[in-house]
Write a structure and sequence with these properties.
mainly alpha, about 280 residues, 2 domains, two-stranded antiparallel sheet
């Protein structure tokens, strides 16, 4: 019969031999190496391939959101959110942006009414989920179809968000230091934010130099600010998961969790870029 001390020693050895974070990191890397080139290819090709991808991603993120609200189950307001997001993005793929906007607004109100009658979580979260998942996806479709460097804008947006995530991860793990928002996301540090901004600024400078424009410093600064927006979007999604007591939005992507977990920064950044382009009518 083993002693308590020997059992403890065996337990320590098992924990040390388990893949743990190293295995998770390997899955993240493999998933990223597969999904990132696919995303770049579809952005390069444009319609209808990118439209179909955005439609799928938007509907899947809506599904993740309402499952969080419904504690793992779908309910009537959840179905309303998914239907509204899918229909709105289909209208956007057909370039009926005004109709898509009305569908999003009507879907949010319908989900709110249904949730007020039947849901435990209240109407706010379902209405917010409709806006949160549909509007940024619609913005990406609109940006890609922009006659002024639409392809370049979306590729720049993707690389800025990816560089922010990579820079934040590397700087946060190597430097550490004070936490940004320990109650919301315990792993995020101010050093990570600085690292993400630095990498995003570098991407912006390279993009401006590649396009041959004179505003290298300007686009670098815009990219740095956009990195802050992406990190804010990440924190918002972390707050959502804490609100509903979930670690991940789903398990659709091996090693990454759900689509909301991976695209939270892109959702926030795409809305800001859309507002910049739409209000100024300018190219990248």
């Amino acid at each position: 019969m083993r002693s308590v001390s020997s059992n403890s020693a065996i337990g320590v050895m098992v924990r040390r031999s388990a893949p743990g974070k190293a295995g998770d990191l390997a899955l993240r890397v493999v998933s990223g190496l597969v999904l990132a080139p696919l995303a770049v290819l579809l952005v390069y090709l444009g319609a209808p391939y990118l439209d179909l991808l955005v439609l799928f991603l938007g509907a899947a993120m809506a599904w993740e959101w309402v499952r969080l609200c419904g504690e793992g189950e779908l309910d009537p307001p959840g179905y309303a959110v998914i239907a509204a997001v899918g229909t709105a993005l289909a209208a956007g793929a057909l370039r009926h942006y005004s109709i898509a906007g009305w569908i999003i607004a009507a879907g949010a109100m319908a989900a709110a009414v249904l949730a007020a009658r039947s849901s435990r979580q209240g109407s706010f979260w379902y209405a917010l989920g409709t806006l949160y998942t549909a509007l940024p996806c619609l913005a990406v479709i609109w940006l890609r179809e922009s006659p002024q460097q639409g392809r370049e804008i979306v590729l720049w947006l993707l690389f800025v968000v990816w560089a922010t995530d990579i820079g934040a991860y590397v700087a946060g793990r190597t430097i550490g230091g004070p936490k940004m928002a320990p109650r919301i996301s315990p792993n995020k540090t101010w050093a990570g934010l600085a690292g993400g901004m630095a990498c995003a600024g570098l991407v912006g400078a390279v993009a401006a130099w590649t396009l041959g424009g004179p505003g290298i410093a300007l686009l670098a600064v815009v990219s740095i600010l956009l990195a802050g927006v992406a990190q804010a979007g990440d924190l918002l999604e972390s707050a959502l998961k804490r609100r509903f007591g979930a670690k991940d939005s789903s398990h659709l992507i091996p090693g990454h969790g759900g689509l909301l977990d991976r695209l939270d920064g892109l959702l926030a950044a795409s809305l800001v870029v859309w507002l910049m382009i739409w209000t100024r009518g300018a190219s990248l």
